Amino acid sequence: MENNLRIAIGQMCSADTHEVNIDTMRALAGQAKGQGADMLALPEVAGLMNANRKVAQTQVVAAEDDPFIAACREAAAANGIWLHSGSTPVRAPDGRFFNHSTLIKPDGEIAATYNKVHLFDVDVPGATFKESKAFAPGDAAVLADTPWGPMGLTICYDMRFPHLHRLLAEGGARLIFSPAAFTVPTGRAHWHVLLRARAIETGAYVIAAAQSGTHADGRETYGHSLAVDPWGKVIADLEDGAPKLEVVEIDLSMVEKTRVQIPSLLNKRDVSLRRA
Fold it and tell me: Which domains, and CATH codes, for the chain?
């Protein structure tokens, strides 16, 4: 496995049409290549952010027909880089959507896909969300093989579920993607601490490309795309504003070194709950 990875983190303020987001993605891919990146990571709903479900129903198609995924494959091949699409909505069998992530090889072929497992059904001060009304959940954790070793795929709200990340780490994940479109209130309260915790407990790098700003559909997102190392240190924070890009050089041998120092993956014990 290779250890040195130059990964570009792309922060976006996604629009409510595929075409605008494709243009942004292509620009970010070109910048990533120009700055010597091996891989580009994009945020959740990079391909389409449209809260108007009636209109979205006319835009969202099956993954194999999705224009954003097709454009990402073309951009990966044109620039000779790996490309993590963040996510985009695609049609699910039950008529709802999947929040769908794609990891693409430098030849444009798809290495792995993932459908968001944990849906954002919450009621917090100032905001109520019911993602499950429009989206169907995925049913599997996904590891992707790359030249830098296995990489785990998650999306946004998944970061609140440590067991998913532990499963990926136990499977060998050296890096975990966590693309997101975090709300501003929850971002201010939880974003940094959650991502640092997931990195620390798994001993893996966490790459969290994020949405930032006020979107065409009226939503506001927190930004602060992050790269976190296995010790929990934030090594990149894009703060707010979009589109923007930062290339981070990481040494993946730190994963094994950290897991030897703190072998929590090996020290796990299964216990039962007892009420006293």
Answer: 4-265 (3.60.110.10)
